[in-house]
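Sharing a chain and its predicted structure for anyone who wants a worked example. Both blocks are below, sequence first, tokens second.
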Amino acid sequence: ISFNAKANNFFNVSVRIEGNHFLNRGRLYIDPNTYDCVDDAVQEFANELNNKNLEVGNFLGGGKFADVYKGTLLKNEKRIDVAIKMLKHGASMHNRDDFLSEAAILGQFTDDNVILLHGVVFKEKPNLIVLEFMENGSLDKFLHKNDMQFSILQLLGMARGVASGMKCLSEMGFIHKDLAARNILVDESFCCKVADFGMSHKSDADDTYDTKGGKVPVRWTAPESIQFEKFTSASDMWSYGVLLWEIMSYGERPYWDWGNYEVVERVNTGYRLPPPM
């Protein structure tokens, strides 16, 4: 795998991409924030589900204003496993808009390597986002758990999957802004899918760096994005390079135990991550 750091999109990632992927030629991503109300964007891009067809199961994890559960969805007369994001009771309207915006974003993508949105419940409480269930969870934890257990070809297959998903996003003009192993999900066949489309709730505080535009995940963010708050497909490409390093190092933390300020200073003076051992 190689990539052109000067490229402006993922067309220049030198990975052979096979399989049936939806071609988004002529389609462009539409920012939900351009709508008068986020509910209008959700209605346009996401399927509305009947709450009666959902069963909420075990708790998987939680964030600032949403929890995630494993559950089942009755679809085409069959029950399938799903991940259910549930907006917490007492969440503000701003939190709700951020929560539902992710559904309006995800509903615009159809690709084998982008997490699938089954639908939403947004006219009843609690508001729910229903996603495909990924058996092996996040890529960083999956790699930690299986340290040194994969062949180089298997690791490259994971990298290829992420590149394919990002190619779809880039073709539609979408900038992820937070591409990292923690935001990639892995299914039972080790297929990797791009997930977590909302900077407002993803990054751990220890891995963020304050800029005028807010907090950014400094270890994965291109220098120009930190300095000038400029995010492009090229800055996503930088993040993809760091993600490749994570894959090949089995989920090691980029820049190890350096402080965030030290990371910024040293990268700005030309330091780059060495090849993983």
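Comments welcome. The chain has seven helices and nine strands.
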